[in-house]
Write a structure and sequence with these properties.
The chain is of the alpha+beta class and about 300 residues long. Helix content is about 35%, strand content about 30%. The strands form two sheets. Strands 1, 2, 3, 4, 5, 6 and 11 form a seven-stranded mixed sheet that branches. Strands 8-9-7-10 form a four-stranded antiparallel sheet, with helices on one face. The protein binds adenosine-5'-triphosphate.
């Protein structure tokens, strides 16, 4: 393994994502659900700093509740660092620092972004030059959403969410995100959806184990047309998130009343993403939601995946 270029400290930035579309099918025998989803990387970033050290350590800063982010090997960034070391035969450690901006357990893949950033940062720090394809494989081993955080942009995820295909989406999409202080658990939202469906007998006979993203979604993305995209945005997990957090229903209506084209719970929630017609419309929606007491952020997509800064 070439250890050609070593660095003193590396700063990598990786984006959070929203699910523009998320259809959940039946559950496979391994417990994972069949998915068809469209991810878009947005301009809300995690910053990961990697410095040389003998051991592995991790600190976290930013707008996070202490205790919500594990600082040991349960942390996806730490696992990413160890995986790079193990794969490349590196015997030293790393001091990782994560500056979080993506809400924890917010349905925006913050942990996955940290993992993708840590992969890139450690590869650069140790000069291991693993290359894009190995980094992609390591990302897939860390979690279904990690490869997307590595690549960024807009992409379709199928299978269990891990089969990733880049989608053509050249235009800019303006989103207003309303974040919540308290997160929601992804496994609990899937279990909640199963329960809701069992109650009404949906999917009982023939749960689809292979799903596709509707052509209308892909066409709207390709055209860079938020007006066409808005009516085709769907998230099957939304009903589970709303049942757990009924205030989300009101919030979805509030954003549309404030001028958004539509609103959707991102992933397993509770972050809500409002699609707006353009930057000015988004600024107005953001202002109105802030005035109503919400934490609202204006972001845009699509942005690139994990990148070394400076
Ligand atoms: P998912 O990617 O499963 O949709 P999410 O985006 O809703 O999750 P994350 O912030 O990624 O939420 O984290 C979910 C849980 O994973 C947290 O509650 C935390 O216990 C654990 N976790 C592991 N590593 C990290 C990390 N680097 N940052 C935040 N949480 C992490």
């Amino acid at each position: 393994m070439s250890m050609a270029q070593r660095s003193d400290a590396v700063h990598v930035r990786a984006p959070g994502k929203i699910n523009v579309y998320l259809a959940v099918g039946g559950r496979h025998d391994d417990g994972y659900h069949a998915l068809a989803t469209v991810f878009q990387a947005v301009s809300l970033y995690e910053d990961v700093y990697a410095s040389p050290a003998h051991d592995f350590s991790l600190t976290v800063s930013g707008d996070v509740d202490p205790g919500t982010v594990p600082l040991d090997d349960r942390n996806l960034a730490m696992r990413a660092a160890r995986l790079v070391a193990q794969t490349a035969g590196v015997t030293e450690g790393v001091e990782l620092h994560i500056r979080k901006s993506v809400p924890v357990a917010g349905g925006m893949g913050g942990g996955s972004a940290d993992a993708a950033a840590a992969l890139v940062a450690c590869d650069a720090l140790w000069g291991t030059e693993l290359g894009a394809s190995v980094l992609h494989d390591l990302a897939a081993r860390l979690g279904a959403d990690v490869p997307f955080a590595l690549h960024g942009g807009t992409a379709v995820g199928t299978g269990r969410g891990e089969r990733l295909t880049p989608a053509l989406a050249p235009g800019r999409f303006d989103w207003v995100l309303v974040t919540s202080e308290k997160g929601l658990s992804t496994p609990e939202m899937y279990a909640g959806l199963d329960e809701l469906r069992a109650r009404v007998g949906a999917l009982a006979d023939d749960p689809p184990l292979s799903l596709d993203v509707p052509i209308a979604v892909l066409q709207a993305l390709r055209a860079g047309d938020p007006l066409a995209l808005a009516p085709s945005m769907i998230n099957d997990l939304e009903q589970a998130a709303v049942r757990e957090r009924p205030s989300l229903d009101l919030l979805l209506a509030e954003g549309v009343q404030a001028g958004a084209l539509t609103g959707i719970v991102s992933g397993s929630g509770p972050t809500v993403a409002f699609l707006c017609a353009g930057p000015e419309a988004a600024a107005a929606v953001q202002e109105e939601l802030i005035a109503a007491g919400h934490r609202a952020l204006h972001v845009h997509g699509a942005v690139p995946g994990a990148r070394i800064i400076g």
